[in-house]
Design brief:
The complex is a heterodimer.
Chain A: E1 2-6, E2 10-17, E3 20-27, H1 35-58, E4 67-71, E5 76-80, E6 85-86, H2 94-106, E7 109-110, E8 119-122, E9 125-128, E10 135-136, H3 140-151, H4 156-169, H5 173-184
Antiparallel strand pairs in A: 1-2, 2-3, 3-5, 4-5, 6-8, 7-10, 8-9
Helix pairs in contact in A: 2-4, 3-5
Chain B: E1 2-7, E2 12-21, E3 24-34, H1 44-65, E4 73-81, H2 85-102, E5 106-110, H3 111-122, E6 129-133, E7 138-144, E8 147-153, H4 159-170, H5 177-190, E9 204-205, E10 208-209, H6 212-224, H7 229-255, E11 259-263, H8 270-283, E12 286-289, H9 299-311
Parallel strand pairs in B: 1-4, 4-5, 6-11, 11-12
Antiparallel strand pairs in B: 1-2, 2-3, 6-7, 7-8, 9-10
Helix pairs in contact in B: 1-2, 3-9, 4-5, 4-6, 4-7, 5-7, 7-8
Classes of the chains: A alpha+beta, B alpha/beta.
């Protein structure tokens, strides 16, 4: 296994699963907290990430890496390796990014960190990665948070394109109204990104 | 040059004299009186009554201990917010009347910025990740030009508020965050190996926190009536602090800062300090905890920040009390 990235929670390795290129996400034990608590959190998160990846693929019908293996004892999740260009390193694709998030939300899947960093582009097709903070929810507030996170990444015109396409796949007006409501709340008023 | 600082944002009334000479700030006196915690919590009206009874004595002692006469003072500074409306207005009344009487400038400063700045000054920190943990606030921030930028914060109640309320719900002795810490420590001492811990919700959204869910879950566990007070205290404190630490870790990896500090009332929590020391080891960064006497609410930090403002010849836009002062809008004095 070759280490390719170190995050706050996990080490990311490149590996091979029965001859197919894969990515292994190994969550690091946190020595500063209670060992039982640490194991409980880690197990829940690995399971949840695998479950949400599968649900995004099967229910929302969007492209995500396939889950190969879940090894709870080793704190590892093995998924398909995706070849592609990071959207944060390119421009455009706001329409498709909006359409995809709409599909996820129509199926009550909250991504939790929907930034352009977590979307890959390969021959015009978008693939969403990193479901590490993902969860299931029907609340408009939770859906609105995803939209706000994306908004921080682009300008107003780009966000309008994003929203127009988001509405095609998730026509629920209430979510957009909630976005406006949250943006007006004190905590978001100034200096925040 | 001497400056008088007044603090009255919540349960504590405090006065302090800060002297600036030869490029150094020295806090000469730091007198305070805190409203005792009880089962009923803090009632704004009662807090003001308490402050009214004590303010004169505190003011005079702080002057006496620092050998200061009224006519030596160059400015009055007071905490204009964030805090409780009632008590903020009381501090304003005291500060305004002294400043009018002596005809010297009044500087209203942000209580939260004072917490942060005193810790940075004492720790000689240049560009740290600041973790501000107190009753009403839980914020992660970094310096950006003349302001702080908030990376993440609590979306409902502060972690201090949670720990304090938990002490009341569990009925620790005393019924506050200190009691909670003591009861929690007892659980660790009694345990062999990894201490037992109850399952409580663990919510964190990126670097933002929610703590009310944890409080409701605790209330449920208490009403079940089958867990010991020690176990309840330990589970709540350990879970809450672990959530906070996860946010701190994320902020360190994201910003790549080489030092971090904790300040505010809950920076006195021994367990939190231990955990932060461990984080510092893991990420190979410097860690500084604000000294015990400058963690809680006291006027020392207010007088210090006021003196800095006075020196930089900068006066904040408004001097009136404001419950909703936001730290990121405050200009950091040079």
């Amino acid at each position: 296994m070759k280490l390719i990235n170190k995050g706050a929670e996990a080490f990311i390795y490149q590996s091979e699963f029965h001859g197919i290129k894969s990515v292994v996400k190994k969550r690091i034990p946190k020595t500063y907290r209670n060992a039982t608590l640490d194991e409980r959190i880690t197990t829940t998160r690995i399971k949840e990430e695998a479950r949400m990846l599968r649900r995004a693929r099967e229910n929302a019908k969007i492209s995500t890496p396939r889950v190969f293996d879940v090894r709870l004892n080793e704190r590892e999740l093995e998924i398909e390796f995706i070849k592609g260009k990071n959207l944060s390193k390119t421009t455009g694709f706001h329409d498709k990014a909006g359409e995809i998030l709409g599909k996820l939300h129509a199926n009550h899947i909250i991504h939790g960190d929907y930034t352009r960093n977590n979307i890959l582009e390969n021959e015009g097709k978008l693939i969403v990665i990193d479901f590490g903070l993902s969860y299931e929810s029907e609340k408009h507030e939770d859906k609105a948070t995803d939209l706000i996170v994306y908004k921080m990444n682009c300008n107003d015109k780009e966000f309008q394109t994003f929203i127009k396409n988001y509405e095609k796949t998730n026509p629920d007006k209430q979510t957009l109204r909630t976005v406006e409501k949250i943006m007006l709340m004190g905590r978001y008023k100034s200096g925040r990104q | 040059m001497k400056i008088l600082g007044i603090e009255s944002t919540a349960h504590t009334f405090s006065c302090s004299i800060c002297e600036y000479s030869n490029g150094k700030y020295a806090i000469l006196s730091n007198e305070f009186k805190k409203y005792p915690s009880s089962k009923e919590g803090y009632i704004p009206r009662k807090l003001v009554e308490f402050h009214e009874q004590n303010y004169e004595e505190i003011l005079l002692t702080s002057l006496k201990k620092s050998n200061t006469k009224f006519n030596e003072l160059k400015a009055i500074t007071y905490a204009r917010g964030p805090g409780m409306g009632h008590t903020l207005h009381f501090g304003y009344r005291v500060a305004k009347s002294i400043s009018d009487k002596l005809n010297i400038p009044l500087i209203g400063v942000a209580h939260s910025l004072a917490h942060v700045e005193i810790s940075n000054y004492l720790g000689k920190l240049k560009d740290p990740l600041v973790v501000y943990v107190s009753g009403g606030n839980t914020q992660l921030m970094i310096k950006e030009k003349n302001n702080y930028r908030i990376l993440g914060e609590t979306l409902d109640i502060g972690i201090g508020n949670l720990l304090h309320t938990a002490g009341r719900i569990i009925e620790t002795n005393p019924t506050d965050a200190i009691g909670l810490m003591t009861f929690s420590q007892e659980h660790v001492t009694k345990s062999k190996g990894t201490p037992e811990i109850l399952e409580l919700p663990f919510t964190i959204k990126g670097m933002n926190f929610n703590f009310t869910g944890l409080q409701s879950a605790l209330e449920k566990k208490v009403s079940e009536g089958k867990h010991s007070k020690n176990l309840l205290a330990y589970s709540l404190q350990e879970t809450a602090l672990s959530i906070l630490c996860e946010g701190i870790e994320r902020a360190i990896t994201l910003t790549g800062k080489k030092e971090f500090t904790i300040c505010g009332g809950n920076a006195r929590n021994k367990k939190l300090i231990e955990m932060c020391e461990e984080i510092a080891k893991i990420h190979d960064v410097k860690f500084y905890a604000c000294p015990f006497e400058y963690c809680g609410d006291q006027a020392g930090m207010i007088a210090f920040l006021g003196a800095k403002y006075y020196n930089s010849k900068f006066t904040p836009e408004s001097n009136e009390p404001n419950q909703d002062v936001r730290l990121e809008n405050e200009v950091i004095p040079k």
